[in-house]
C-alpha cells in the first residue's frame, strides 16, 4: 500500500480496541473516539496484548506501526478517514445518531463498518443520509488475532464499496465472509446461541459443570472444527459412501428425543450464580489478563501450526504474509531477515530453543537464495540448495516477543558451493545473539543429489561472493 | 504397565478401527470380531492412518505395537480380554444380543464399553447378566488422535470398575469425561445436534453454503473453542466485570428473534442433495483418504502446538508423554533419544528443516543432563546447562513419519563444561542422518551466568566423560 491509510474507531472497549490494534499494527494511522474516561487505559491494555501477540504470528516483521490519536468529537475523528468502524452499544437509536454525525463529515467513499452482532444492515441504514455506505463488519474477539469478519450489506449497498471493503480487510490480514442475505445474528452467532442454550440446560439439570463442558468441547469436536469446520468434518466421517449417504443416515437422528430440548431455559439469578461459581472454580486462579495471554498464546501457536500445514486459518496467514515479505537489498552484509520470536519457540529454560536458531538462519539463507534467483519458482522447478554443515555460536539468550535481525555475508560462492556467514542481532539494541557459518550445496530435488545451479544463479552467487569479499 | 493388556473390539469400521489402533499402538494386544467381509481391509486402512499419525504426536517413541488378530466368534474374541469395546450398529436389540454373548464368556472384572452415541447406559444394561459391567465409552473420530471419551454409568455400575476404566483409558492417552447423570446423546453430541440443526436452516434458506459455514466456524469461534471451550472463552470476554455480569448481559439475547428458529427443518431429498452438491464443490477435489490425512496432519500440528504451550489437549499429551519417557541406560555411546519426526517439522524442500536437527540434539542433550542428575527438578531449582556452540553435519534427508534414534558420547566433562557428540540414525536401517558436536556450559538460571554444577552432577558428568573416553 503506497497511500497512508487512516481508520477511525468510534467506541473503544475490547472490540473497538481490537480493531484499533489490527489497523495500527498493519501500519494504518488510527484515530479513536470514546467518551469513556477509562477509554485510553482500556485501549492501552488491548494494544499491549496485541503488540505482544500479533507480530508473533508471522515469519516476517510487520510494517512500522501507524500513529495513534484520541479525539474529542466524532467529526474530528472521522474526517478524511478511509475506514470508520462503529462499535458503540447495541442500541439502534444510539447507532443512528452516530451514523448521522459521521456522515455529516466523512468522505462519501469512506467505509462505515458496524461491529454489531444484533442488528441487520437494513436496520442500521434506516434514515441515513447515504445508507449504501453503512455495512455490517462483525468481528470476533480477539480481533487482533482471529481473521473472521462477517460482512453484510443490503440492496442499498454499493457493490464496489463492498469489494473495496473486502480488499482493505484482507490487506490487514482479516477474512471477510460475505453473507449472502441479511439475517438476525448473521451466521456464527446463531451457532453460538444454539450451543449456549444447550449448555444452560446441561448446567441447570446438573449434567455437567462449566469445566466439563469446556473439556467436552476442546478435547473433541472443538479442535476438529478449528481446522475443517462442520461440513468437511462430516464429509470425512461419511467416508467413501459420500456426503449424501451420510446426511440420509444422520437425518433421522434429528427426530430423536434430545432434539426436543429446544426451548430457552429461564435464566434465573440462581442459574446465573451457579454458572459464575462454577466458572470461578474452574478459572478463578487466573486473572482476566492472564487468561487473555494464555488464550492468545494458544491461538498463535495453533494458527502457526496450521500455517506450516498450509490449511484453514494458516492458509490465510500464508497469503497475508506474502505482502510482508520484503525484497532483499544489496549490502555487505545484507539485511537478510527481520522477524519477531514467536511464543511457540521457547523451551524449558525459558528462552528460544537452540533448534530455532537453526530455523532462523535457514530462513535467512532462503532469502539469500531468492536474491540470487533460487526462489520459490526455482525450487518448484526441482532445484534447490541443501545445508550440509553449520557451526552455530550462541552468544546471548533470545526470548518470545523479541524482534531480531539477521545480517548475512556470502563467504563462498562457486559452482555447487554456497557458504553464508550469518549474524543474528536483537533489533532493539543491535546486540549479537548468535552467529552461524552455513555451508550449502546445490541439489536436484529429483535425484536428491548435488548438481550445478542454473547459469544465471551461478553467476549471481559468484558476483555476490565477490562483492562480500571486499 | 507390566502385565500385557488385551482389548477385544466387537464391530470394526471407522470407530472400532480407531479403538483398535489406539490400543495397539499403545502396546496392547488387540483382537477383532467383525462379520463384514471387508473388515480386514477397512481396519487396515484406519490402522495405516493411525500408524502414520499417532507416533508423531509425541516427542518420545511409543511402546512396541501389540499383536493384532481377527476372530470368527465373539466368544473367542473376548475370552480373557481386559477391555471389550462394542461398536456395533445403533440398534438396541443387536447390542443386547452382543452383550449376552460377551458376558457368557468374558471375565467378570473385564470392562465392557459401548461406543454408542444414541443410547443411555441404563438402556444398554437392560436384561444383562451383569448390568454393572456395561458402560458407555463414547469416542470421537479419529479415535486414535482425539482424547475425549464420554464415560457414562448408572446406579448399577460398580464405582471401582468405572475408576479402573478411567485409569486404563488414561493410560492409552485418552481423556475419560465422567458424565454425572445419564442423558440422551450424552454431552458433546447435543451441541453437535444443535449446531447441525441451525446449519440446515442456513443452507435451506440460502444464507450460506457448506464452505461458508465451515469458514465461519474455523476462522472464528472454532479455533477459540479448540483451546478454551465455551465458558472460559466467555469468561475472558466478560473481562474484569466478571462472569455473572457477562451472563446477566448476555441472557436477554436469548429472547431475541433468531432464537425462535428452533424447530427442525424437514430433511427433504432436495435439501440433502443441495448439501451434498455444495460439499462436492468445496472438497470434491480431494479423496476421503486425502481429507483424512489432511485432517490428521492439522490435528497433530495443532495438538503439538498446544503441547508446547502446556494447555488444553496439549496438557493431556504432556501428562501421557511422561509415561513414554524411558530412563537412559549406561552405554558408549548411550541411546539418548528415540522418536518419530512429526508432520510439523518439514519445510519447502519436503524434508525435516535443519532447525529441527538442532532441536533433536538439544532434546538428546536434555536426556543426558537428566542422566547425570541435571533433571527437571534441578532446572526448576535454578541450575541448567546452556548450549554455547554446535557444529552440525547434515548427511542424509529425514522425513515426517520416520523413526530416528540419537546415540551420544560425552567427549568432555569437567567443571562447567559439558561436550556431547551426537549421532542421529534412521531407526529402520541405522543410516547416519546427521551428527552434532555440542558444547555446553553450566549456568545459574537466576544470574543467567556460568557457574559450577552441584557436586553430585559434576561427579557424574566427569565419570560419564571418563567412561566414554574408553
TrEMBL record, chains A, B:
The reaction(s) catalysed by this protein are:
carnitine + NAD(+) = 3-dehydrocarnitine + NADH + H(+)
Among Pfam families, the record links this protein to:
3HCDH, 3HCDH_N, 4HBT_2
One GO BP annotation is: fatty acid metabolic process
InterPro entries with a match to the protein in the record: 3-OHacyl-CoA_DH_NAD-bd, 3HC_DH_C, 6-PGluconate_DH-like_C_sf, 6PGD_dom2, HotDog_dom_sf, L-carnitine_dehydrogenase, NAD(P)-bd_dom_sf
Q: Give the metabolic or biological pathway.
A: Amine and polyamine metabolism; carnitine metabolism
Q: Which Gene3D superfamilies match?
A: Hotdog Thioesterase (3.10.129.10), N-(1-d-carboxylethyl)-l-norvaline Dehydrogenase, domain 2 (1.10.1040.10), NAD(P)-binding Rossmann-like Domain (3.40.50.720)
Report the locations given in the UniProt record.
Answer: Cytoplasm
User: Does the entry feature the keyword NAD, yes or no?
Assistant: yes
**What CDD domains has UniProt attached to this entry?**
4HBT (cd00586)
Which EC number(s) are documented for this chain? 1.1.1.108
Molecular function (GO) terms for this protein are: carnitine 3-dehydrogenase activity; NAD+ binding
Where is the 3-hydroxyacyl-CoA dehydrogenase NAD binding domain positioned along the sequence? 7-181
- Which HAMAP family does the entry mention? L_carnitine_dehydrog (MF_02129)
What the protein does comes down to:
Catalyzes the NAD(+)-dependent oxidation of L-carnitine to 3-dehydrocarnitine.
Q: How does it assemble?
A: Homodimer.
Q: Which NCBIfam families match?
A: PRK07531.1 (NF005716)
Q: What is this protein called?
A: L-carnitine dehydrogenase
